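All the exercises in this workshop are built on plain-text protein records. There is nothing in a record beyond a sequence line and a structure line. A learned vocabulary of local backbone shapes supplies the integers on the structure line. The question running through the whole workshop is how a given chain folds. Here is such a record, shown just as it appears in the course material:

***
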Amino acid sequence: MALTGIQIFKLLPKTNCGECGVPTCLAFAMSLATGKAELAACPYVSEETKAQLTEAAAPPIRAVTIGVGDRAFKVGGETVMFRHEKRFENPPGFAIIISDTMDEAEVSARLERFKLQYERVGLILRPELVALKADSGDASKFEALVSKVVQNSDAGLILLSDNPDILKAGLKACSDRKPLIYAVNKDNLEAVAELAKSSSCSVAAKGSNLEEVSELTNRLTEAGIKDIVIDSGSRTVRQAFEDQIIIRSAALNKKFRPLGFPTICFPSEMTDDPMKEAVIASMFVAKYGGIIVLSDFRGENLFPLLVARMNIYTDPQRPLATTEGIYEIGGPDENSPVLLTSNFSLTYFIVSGEIENSKMPSWLLVKDTEGLSVMTAWAAGKFVADTIAPFVKKCGIEDRIKHHKLLIPGYLAAESGGLEEELAGWEILVGPREGAHIPAYLKTWQS
């Protein structure tokens, strides 16, 4: 359970030395309580206090990491039921199933589809995991599949089998990749738990209901295994949905540690309809899947899920912003229009989308307004002539065009005079207020 600033202060050395970067221990304690400082910043805190504060500060849902290196995937670590309370911490991961009964061509095709990725708001959206399923019941065949995937992909891995011998064979080919071992159940607990301990890999606990899952996680934690993912075993939409809410509520509101772990869900086992599967998956993105296993990846199904995940897992207290700079839309040349907008992501997407619709190749200057929209940034003094002019001069657009015409949003009309003074030699054009009117305006453009 999280401690208050005063509770943390009582455990600190109270030297007020300032070496942590703040003037007093009380101020440091308040920063710790709000997550604005790290305990390691205090050079005088005792090991006993470190252990006590670390345990107290641990999130009610444990954070689990699958994989290694740049593609390591972190799930869990959640602290709230609803995004508006604070934020959701770690987005769910999407996994594609590859079975050891599939032929070489299908395995290769699925590995290729795993590489699907999209750029949005300056972010790369892509799936994270490959779930390898031992349908054949042949340990050597499963090991061969795991080896092939390891050689041809940097994905995080999930090994799917309830047979300890098959899981051991799969681990032999990928233990250094730290896969998720799926799954411990009441019949194989000791053997699979030993695999997880010896390989230092995370493990999934699967029960027929939440009571059985709780018993499994208790036994795993008693055995010293802490990195656990839980599967309630439900394979109907309604029950799986209810289980996700009960698990999150029990961990956060009731502080019930046996359910304080991220979850894994299988829309792939709830329907044979790919589109319905995507709808079910979208439900788990919102409530509260940690890993979502899909039967296959297709652009028309995967892209909406990735966008939904991005939107839900952004920090509501921090506007989603596009990187400041020059954006080329439609292959502009030295005579193409130059437009200006703010770096609020929604504004950027609306404006860039309307420019694309106009079929007029253009340069779009995106000014850093700290993620604020045009009107809000203007009202806050962050999108005015004094800040816009230096950006236009330094961004490098003058080296790419012959003309000196800048099209500003209609909401910035009051800044046109100031911009003409600040940008000597430039002609400031006041465009429409609404993005939907940009295509019609650009038809009148003459360089």
Q: What stands out?
A: The domain at 5-57 is CATH 1.10.15.40 (3-methyladenine DNA Glycosylase II; Chain A, domain 3). The longest helix spans residues 237-252. The mean pLDDT is 92. The two ends are 63 Å apart (CA to CA).
